[in-house]
Predict the 3D structure of the following.
Amino acid sequence: MSSLIELFSYDFFLKAFLAAVFASISCGIVGSYIVSRRIVFVSGGITHASFGGIGLAFLLGFNPLLGAVLFAVMSALGIQFFTKVAHVREDSSIAIWWSLGMALGIIFVFMTPGYTPNLMSYLFGNILTVTISELFWMFALNVLIILFFVFFFRKILYIAFDEEFARAAGLPVTLFNYLTITLIALTVVLNIRVVGIILILSLLTIPQAAANLFTKDFLKMLLLASLFAFIGTISGLFISYFLDIPSGAAIIFTLVIIFALLRVYKYFF
Amino acid sequence: MKPLIKIENLSVGYDKEPVLHDVNLEIYEKDFLGIIGPNGGGKTTLLKAILGLLKPMKGKIIFREDINRRKKPIGYLPQVKHIDRNFPITVYEVVRSGSIMKNPKQVTSSQIKQKVEQLLTEMGISGIRNKAIGDLSGGQMQRVFLCRALLSDPKILILDEPDTFVDNRFEGELYEKLKELNKEMAILLVSHDVGTISSYVKTIACLNGELHYHPDNIITQNQLDGYNCPIKIISHGDIPHTILKSHK
């Protein structure tokens, strides 16, 4: 136990702990929205498309997260535009943006001279190397998400539940859709450092699936999903540290175990 | 008397292709209008146009002055099959969502809350207020959405195929309830089930691309032939209805 407490005296561990807290809150809230609205696939598209931005940043030598934000938001709006305005089937437009982003990323990384040492940490995440400035942005995102959901909770809920009814009532549905999809893009990108592009979808869906076992109330789901995400990330973090295995994978593995246990518990009780 | 809604030469549809042509219709206070027609005849399209979800390609829809274009006192009951039953939302919140039809400047949060409670009690569903929407039966679901539609004190109640997926017992209850509501508001109901509808509504319109209005609720075989309405459904709809009456 003392070694556990000792861990928190390390600077890198404290930062990882804070990153886990921020990731749990943002992914818990935004993920619940994603799952409820059945836009998991859209979120997958956005996530993978952001790899293009990371590649571009490697090539041109700027902050990879900035590149990822650029591509994530662009693909989010692009998917909406393709579907709503250009009348491309939604699943097709997701696939187009998903693969375009990945393809561009691979081309850019290939064109980058020399070895790209951090590439793996963007693909699979490494919570133990989170920097202060990344923590700051994660914190800012959390504030933004919480404010947005506190101020517009019922509007978000009602639009998500029955978009047509909300439209008939004159709510600015299109504006809200663009705002929420942008928020999803930001959430995905700023949490890439925690579990990586390939695995981020799990933080947005597994704690929510677990929460959904116990509640069918949107607000309770947000809170419970954040809690489960927190338990999963923290335990994953410890497991990763003590067993010396990659943190992203350890976190996902823990999340799945938690979900499985809760599912079994729910079956018997 | 001025009509609540006046539809003039309306053509409307999707992707530049009109589904409805030159529809003219006036809805007055305390009307109970049933619109029947085959699938694909444009029933839902007409409702969407009235709700402002589709822009007219030609013609216009005029609301009476006291019915604001944006926050219109229209109650709307969508087809239950369009509702995502797995969405994590409680009965209370679904009913409360009807408040977005109202101008937020005119009502306080506690007024909304009170009205929700009152409607839940009236409709006999206050016991399931905290239940998830996915756990309800067809009849309960219908009642929840009727509460939502009534929350904004509508002058017109619009129902899209209210009899689908509802057991016969509640169907009778629903129509009795509508009859009662009709004392206070106009009702516009869309259905493919000619039989049930004709015994409750005051007037009937046939919609199959074009609209044919009947000033009473009797449809003759002759009229149906002329307007290409689905005749088979009449006999189909009449049978359960008769059974319902003899039970009472």
Summary: Chain A has a mean pLDDT of 92. The radius of gyration of chain A is 19 Å.
